[in-house]
Amino acid sequence: MIEEDTNWFSKWEEQLPSPDDLMPISQSLITPDLALAFDIKPPMFPSPSQNHGHLRRDMRVPPICVPSLIFPLNNHNSSEFADSSDLGGSGTPLSGPSDEPARTLKRPRLVWTPQLHKRFVDAVARLGIKNAVPKTIMQLMSVDGLTRENVASHLQKYRLYLKRMPGLSGSGGKGALGINGGGKVVDPATDHLFASGPVPPHFLPFLPVAPMHQHPQIGGVEAVVHPHMQMQMNNYRQGGGGHFGGAAPANGQYENLHHHFPGREAQPS
DNA sequence: GTATTAATAT
DNA sequence: TATATTAATA
Question: What is the superkingdom listed in this entry's lineage (predicted)?
Answer without folding.
Answer: Eukaryota
